Amino acid sequence: MAKHTDLSNSERAQIAQILDRRSNEIAGFCDEYRRDAKHFGSVEFALSREIDRLRRLAERVNPAEPEDEEEASA
User: Fold this and answer.
1) How many other CB atoms are found less than 10 A from the CB of residue 9?
2) CA within 20 to 30 Å of 8's CA: 1, 15, 24, 33, which one?
3) Which residues contact 12 (CB under 8 A, 6 or more apart)?
4) Tens-digit pLDDT profile for residues 2-14
């Protein structure tokens, strides 16, 4: 099994992009699902958890660059 360090920066960015895109697709479906008066809270909760899981995974695969303290205070 490949280690995290075996992936190039480009590969990690691509994986993160796919995970983000998938979480956004699920979020769009979830919004439509919530509008249905007959929706189930358990399904909504499961969808929300999956969205969060995918976004956390994307962040772990390709973490944001730390902000420079000088830039953050400007």
Assistant:
1) 8
2) 24
3) 4, 61, 62
4) 555 688 999 999 9
Q: Higher-confidence residue: 59 or 71? A: 59
**3-state class percentages of the chain: helix first, strand second, coil last, to nearest 5:** 75, 0, 25
Give Rg (Cα) of the chain.
17
Are 14 and 46 within 8 A, CB to CB?
no
For residues 54 and 20, the answer to whether their CB atoms sit within 8 Å is yes
Confidence of residue 39 (pLDDT cuts 50, 70, 90): confident
Q: Both tokens of residue 46? A: 């499961």
